[in-house]
UniProtKB/TrEMBL annotation:
Domain RAP, first and last residues per copy: 231-289
Keyword Transferase assigned: yes
Subcellular location(s) per record: Mitochondrion
GO molecular function: kinase activity; RNA binding
Lipoprotein found in the keyword field: no
Organism for this UniProt entry: Rousettus aegyptiacus
A single cellular component GO annotation: ribonucleoprotein granule
Region (Disordered): 203-227
Highest taxon of source: Eukaryota
Name of the protein this chain belongs to: Fas activated serine/threonine kinase
Keyword line: Kinase, Mitochondrion, Transferase
Length: 303
């Protein structure tokens, strides 16, 4: 069975890629450096030989360079284009045993944990080996490096204050890491009638793997009528996008896609909208409209 591929449409980069082909003639380390930017920029090249050639390289070199192998697979994971044959190899007991004693063991296990999550959520046809539970580690247990580096430019503090005044401190959680290890910006618990509930009254996250969710259900489909629904407010800051400000970086798109597939309802807060709010009162009005558009409601203490 071949890879599952959903390309981002566009023509940029195709000419430069052709100048590097055939990839098969390049060293594995050079191939890794060429492939990583595609995942980061959330761009699947239109060159027809890109994936077949890359699969051949992975089949030939995967056992020689474990870290480069998982780096390439991470990029393909961001592009929703994972070759089954390579997954069989990196989830094999031999590969896992080989990387256990290396200096990069923890980062490789983190990448393998993310790949296992992608298999669980996105590849229902996969029937090969999986990462043993004892080898799994949290994927992204804290905010990403770019968010920590640019925290003074972030809208997170003012959004947190807006939610505090609008809902009350007990009705949202900030920077909560949910299984299998994704850090959320803000998380709300919602009853079957759409009421925003105090987070402390129940488990703040949904079970993983999802127990009762159809794999074919769209990630963006509203599900606030389900008894244990959770709503995740996702800040989309300027640095979460490629330079054009339209396409999310691969890591951001991956996180949103997986949270949606796990059953969380996502409420994106784009930087253009956040930057247009003039002061806290206007931001509170903006958040109120966003939440009410989802059918959420809260008591008079919400303001």
């Amino acid at each position: 069975m071949g890879p599952s591929c959903v390309p981002w449409s566009g023509s940029e980069g195709s000419a430069s890629l052709r100048s590097h082909l055939p990839l098969c003639n390049l060293s594995f380390e050079v191939v890794q450096k060429l492939v990583l930017p595609f995942g980061r920029l959330n761009y699947l090249p239109l060159e027809q030989q890109f994936m077949p050639c890359l699969e051949r390289i992975l089949a030939r070199e995967a056992g020689v360079a474990p870290l480069a192998t998982v780096n390439i697979l991470m990029s393909l994971c961001q592009l929703r284009c994972l070759p089954f044959r390579a997954l069989h190899f990196v989830f094999s007991p031999g590969f896992i045993s080989h990387i256990s004693g290396t200096p990069h063991a923890l980062i490789v296990r983190r990448y393998l944990s993310l790949l296992d999550t992608a298999v669980e959520l996105e590849l229902p046809g996969y029937r090969g080996p999986r990462l043993p539970r004892r080898q799994q580690v949290p994927i992204f247990p804290q905010p990403l490096i770019t968010d920590r580096a640019r925290c003074k430019y972030s809208h997170k503090d003012i959004v947190a204050e807006g939610l505090r005044q609008l809902l009350g401190e007990e009705k949202y959680r900030q920077d909560l890491t949910v299984p299998p290890g994704y850090c959320t910006d803000f998380l709300l618990c919602v009853s079957s009638s759409g009421a925003v509930l105090p987070v402390r009254t129940q488990d703040p996250f949904l079970p993983y793997p999802p127990r009762s969710r159809s794999r074919g259900q769209a990630a963006s489909q509203p599900t606030t009528r389900d008894p244990a629904q959770r709503v995740v407010l996702m800040l989309r800051e300027r640095w979460h996008f490629c330079r054009d400000g339209r396409v999310l970086l691969g890591s951001r798109a991956l996180r949103e896609r997986h949270l949606g597939l796990m059953g969380y309802q996502l409420l994106p807060l784009p930087f253009e909208e956040l930057e247009s709010q003039r002061g806290l009162p206007q931001l509170k009005s903006y958040l109120r409209q966003k939440l009410q558009a989802l059918g959420l409601r809260w008591g008079p203490e919400g303001g």
